[in-house]
């Protein structure tokens, strides 16, 4: 995949931790567009789309259903990439829908955008098992616990995880894809523990060979995503969580092309240099004696907690809208 305007990193942008920042950033990133008319048209489109999402209280399910229903065949490239979803991502609509539908509940893990590379065919792996085959990147061990907001473990939670290899490609982007790779599905243990072996994520460009890539280029934006590891976590009685962990230090943290990074999702990787530890974690000698360690608990909000948080946010949004109208 080709990189577009990769050096325009917008280091002054705040992380999109709120829906208001998402909407603001989605317009600010177009500030270097060399075509004033295109900038005006895009900024206006973003503003109206974001207003539509807020006015209708659009749910995640409704938005995904709409994207799939109305996505024209001409905007579907390859057997597993939806350009229409990508367009929603780069205009900040996906991030906004996510922010409004999944407000943070206490210490719960925050959500972020799904992206266009999730598949249903991830292989089942045991706790501590490998999601990536040999040669896909620098080894990384990921572990933690799945907990509720009171700190109690959640056994049997399903964890779907997927990432790119060290070239920045998902398995679905290879024409000769056979078995799924760099993705897996596992269950949390009775004490909530989860663990798996993957590879250290790398930054990568979102596809630039289609209509969305051409639009980004004309807007003077880059098409880079910071390094990240995707996770989707579900458990009975709890709000489904779609999130990602972003290793700190990536130059694109503040200017993610799809506005997905939140401060709480930025993680520090530890470097472990020990043959004994590497073997204990399941890495064979061929992987070497050094690996990265990502330690992070995943905290799920209950369905009831999430519903209450959404209703509270909707009331806040309605009050702000009424205030704006009264000032006209």
UniProtKB/TrEMBL annotation:
Q: What is the lineage of its organism?
A: Eukaryota, Fungi, Dikarya, Basidiomycota, Agaricomycotina
User: Which keywords does this chain's UniProt record carry?
Assistant: Dioxygenase, Iron, Metal-binding, Oxidoreductase
What species was this sequence derived from? Exidia glandulosa HHB12029
Sections of the chain in a coiled coil: none
What superkingdom does the record give? Eukaryota
One Pfam family hit: Dioxygenase_C
- Chain ranges of the Catechol dioxygenase N-terminal domain: 35-105
Domain Intradiol ring-cleavage dioxygenases, by residue range, is: 115-277
Give one GO term, molecular function aspect. catechol 1,2-dioxygenase activity
State the similarity comment: Belongs to the intradiol ring-cleavage dioxygenase family.
Which one GO biological process term can you cite for this protein?
catechol-containing compound metabolic process
Asked if Electron transport is a keyword of the record, the answer is no
For activity, the cofactor(s) needed are: Fe(3+)
Return the InterPro entries for the record.
Answer: Catechol_dOase_N (IPR007535), Intradiol_dOase_C (IPR000627), Intradiol_dOase_core (IPR015889), Intradiol_RC_Dioxygenase (IPR050770)
Keyword Iron assigned = yes
What's the protein here called? Intradiol ring-cleavage dioxygenase
